[in-house]
Design a protein that fits this description.
Spore Coat Polysaccharide Biosynthesis Protein SpsA, Chain A, 17 helices, globular, single chain
Length: about 425
């Protein structure tokens, strides 16, 4: 067999593999697009002001070396549009080597200092805090968790009070960006969250599926914590607890009106480091929870479990599509691509990449259609391409449990955020 025959065989086998791999990838794509249609039109929500203000909240802010930003979140939470005697603010100064504890106290928070070099990370600090919270004389109906770099919308507790009154025990608030235009990386991170809020989270709420906790801007009823425990200590404690809730026959609800503004990474290196940690945690969750979710989906015909199982393996679909795209571009440059059943795998890959631009619709629906946003969106496909090596790296290092801290430096208030978002 001459070299041309080997080349043709290689092209045929590779292109065939590309088509085969894309069958489940396209299935997942149409599944997610189909679900997203439920979020195209907003439904009218009950007015939070019509619910009696009766629930007591503990607002918990896990912090590690956050002296630059912790004062702003405490000031922000103290000014929420909710009776001050119905909520308290607790800052966890977790293994801090700076002045986080002192600053938080000066701004009026209840500070809980923790030192444990063996059990590091947000999940462990929350486990530690909940144990102490339940032993306090004052008891709370629910906890709300924020990161130290966050700010919350004034109506946040009004909305969570409404959800508790409606019987919703675990609720994720809308995750917005505090610094969407600080850099192209911050912009693309912001765009990803805006699209996810409208394309992924809102439709699942409307369809009765479970939403996914985002680590901040979330509310959990204390009776749920006491019933099933926290126990979420992996690198993605939010996803772990989401699954834990679902396996107990409950679900996470969504509040599109309760907003938590989060500081996005400024550089590609910071973003990669953060997303690798997310993928390490997701790989850990796949290893421990994919089969239990799949069994529950089959045995109990539980669509919530099925949907979460599909969500868990979404990063693998990203890698498959990246492989097909690379091979398609390679063959398109090297030589005309053979077709299988009349379809060219490279065109399939490029068409799939082109369909990312349907996300423009969701940006418009979320009223994020400024010229600056659309300009940054031109780099969004490249940002998405960086996910493939990040997924591989994260899955490869899934057994490395050490928490990596993201430095937060943007000191803003709500008025400054509103101005920045309109820029």
């Amino acid at each position: 067999m001459d070299i041309m025959a080997y080349w043709k065989l290689f092209k045929f086998l590779t292109s065939s593999l590309g088509v085969i791999l894309q069958i489940p990838a396209w299935g997942a794509f149409f599944y997610y697009i189909g679900i997203s249609f439920a979020g195209w039109f907003r439904r009218k929500e009950p007015d939070a002001k019509n619910f009696p203000l009766k629930h007591r909240f503990a607002l918990i802010v896990p912090s590690h070396n956050e002296e630059k930003v912790v004062g702003k979140i405490v000031t922000n939470l103290k000014s929420l549009d909710y009776p001050g005697d119905l909520y308290d603010i607790f800052v966890i100064a977790d293994n801090c080597t700076d002045s986080t504890a002192r600053v938080a106290k000066e701004f009026g928070a209840n500070v809980m200092e923790r030192a444990d070099n063996a059990r590091k990370g947000k999940g462990y600090s929350l486990e530690w805090m909940f144990a102490r919270l339940f032993q306090m004389e004052k008891q709370y109906d629910a906890v709300c968790i924020f990161d130290a770099d966050n700010l919350a919308s004034p109506n946040f507790l009004l909305e969570m009070n409404k959800h508790l009154s409606m019987g919703h025990k675990v609720v994720q608030g809308y995750l917005d960006s505090k610094n969407p235009f600080d850099s192209w990386i911050a912009a693309n991170n912001s765009i990803a969250f805006w699209i996810s809020n409208r394309m992924f989270q809102l439709p699942r709420y409307y369809l009765g599926l479970s939403n996914v906790l985002g680590g901040t801007g979330m509310m959990i009823a204390t009776d749920v914590l006491k019933q099933i425990g926290w126990g979420a200590t992996c690198l993605t404690e939010d996803l772990e607890f989401t699954i834990k809730v679902a396996l107990r026959g409950m679900k996470v609800y969504w509040s599109h009106n309760a907003v938590a503004y989060d500081e996005k990474p400024l550089t590609l290196q910071q973003s990669i480091q953060q997303r690798i940690r997310w993928m390490q945690g997701q790989a850990d969750c796949i290893a421990r929870f994919f089969m239990p979710l799949a069994r529950r989906a089959i045995q109990k015909k539980d669509m919530i479990a099925f949907d979460l199982a599909a969500y868990l393996i979404q990063p693998l679909i990203v890698v498959v599509n990246f492989f097909c795209l690379v091979m398609g571009v390679f063959f398109m440059i090297a030589a005309p691509q053979p077709t299988i059943a009349g379809v060219s795998p490279d065109l399939l890959s490029l068409f799939f990449l082109g369909l990312l631009y349907i996300n423009v619709i969701f940006l418009i629906l979320e009223q994020r259609y400024s010229l600056k946003t659309l300009a940054f969106f031109l780099t969004f496909p490249f940002y998405n391409l960086t996910w493939a090596p990040i997924v591989v790296k994260g899955f490869w290092n899934k057994n490395k449990k050490e928490w990596s801290h993201t430095l937060h430096t943007r000191v803003l208030d709500l008025a400054e955020i509103s101005h920045a978002n309109k820029a």
